[in-house]
Amino acid sequence: MGRQALTHHHGAGRFAAAAVLCLTLAMGACTDMGRFQVSGNEKPPPTIKVTRPAPETSATDREHQRILASYGGAYNDPKLQALITKAVDRLVAASDRPDFSYRVTILNSGAVNAFALPTGQLYVTRGLLALASDTSELSSVLSHEMAHVLAKHASIREEQARRAALVNNMVGEVDSGDANMQALALAKTKLTMASFSRAQEFEADAIGVALAAKANFDPYGAARFLSAMERNAALKTSHTADPRSQDFLSSHPATPERVENAETSARQYAASGSHERDRNAYLSAINNLVYGEDPSEGFVRGRRFLHPKLGFTFVAPEAYTLDNTAQAVVGVRDGGTQALRFDVVRVPQELSLASYLNSGWMENVDKSSVEESTIGGYPAATATASSDQWQFRIYALRIGGDVYRFIFAAKDKTGDAEKSFRETVNSFRRLTLNEIQAARPLRVKIVSVKPGDTVESMSRRMQGVDRPLERFRIINGLDQRAALRPNDRVKIVVD
């Protein structure tokens, strides 16, 4: 949740439907929160230019800027840029369209994702780079995305998105009496248009494996990386449709059949030529890569959320899983019976917090429940609201010109739930200077295995991540039976 999550209260008229939708769907289907404004003074993004720049239109540039805003901006790492440039150059030279130009942007997101625009703009997240174990695996993703461009799949999907936008406009103009259903219809339309078809995926897999093999990359890289992505997705404890959290499998569904087909395709090329995995060069390039969330936009550590740039922290109730999305911090209790949303808005100083809670940005607020108080030394107000299935408790805290909002939802309103909500709000406080300075990102470190080291002992060196043993195996492409050998180079995550 970045500073761009600030907005004026009167620009949030649709918040009620969106908030109720996000909460009732356990924060799982809310992708387009237009009330948040993106700063217009960002520096031009660092990109990897291959051959000559791909032709751009104002529409392409707008889409590029939207992608940057959704995925935390671009990630600048000269070593990685050089490695990816070299890989793309090899793939372009081996393709049937050596004249076609591609531009690759590394996105500053911990999600495992990659995608392409019809103009040849390719995007890959640092989360995907952290998961890949060698250049052949990365190249399998790049060649897969290039295949979508060459086979015109990206153009077809763009046309589908245009049609979806028309449907969205039509739905938005309907004066529906049920705002939740209206928002749900919009969300479903957007999500159904997000994926390539099954046939397109298989075609891109086949073209991609052939292209990687022709460029002398190990053709089995695709099957290995598809398997790694499935294992990584299974490890995730929370599921949101926020773009920064969505992974490659959200828009490129992987199945055992796809892994099988990728292996079958690879066998056709395995015997011909010398195929490289290029593991050592790849590991050297990703050494010190930021892993997971970028602390400058806030980050989660267990049940605690910290935002060094804005200078605050709070702790979610017991049994909650927190997720820092582009628009808000969202959390769901195990079992899905409770949820929370936390964000920051700008509210005019002359508007009291009690008046703000009654101003209509959330529907069905019980006006008689509004109370003003002080929390942690800051002016605050609280109120209740309800829908058919959920009971809401809202808190607003004012610090300067900003208002910090907690929205809690519970299927059943109980004293214990109310107590846990209150405790979370009371845990909200400013970070100390030492805490702000100590908020460093997690990073990938490449280390050598020494005699006596095991998977278990190496995983104990992992810091700041959940399920370190399983995560160590997954990021290093190790199955349950794999053993380490002295002098092997492996990835660990450290603070």
UniProtKB/TrEMBL annotation:
EC category: hydrolase
Cofactor field: Zn(2+)
Family matches, as PANTHER family: METALLOENDOPEPTIDASE OMA1, METALLOENDOPEPTIDASE OMA1, MITOCHONDRIAL
Organism whose genome encodes this protein: Afipia carboxydohydrogena (Pseudomonas carboxydohydrogena)
Domain of life: Bacteria
Keyword Plastid: no
Keyword Metal-binding in annotation: yes
Keyword terms of this UniProt record: Hydrolase, Metal-binding, Metalloprotease, Protease, Zinc
EC assignment: 3.4.24.-
Coiled coil regions, renumbered to chain: none
Molecular function GO labels: metallopeptidase activity
Name of the protein this chain belongs to: M48 family metalloprotease
Domain Peptidase M48: 80-264
UniProt xrefs under InterPro entries: Mito/Outer_Membr_Metalloprot, Peptidase_M48
Spans annotated as Disordered: 37-61, 236-265
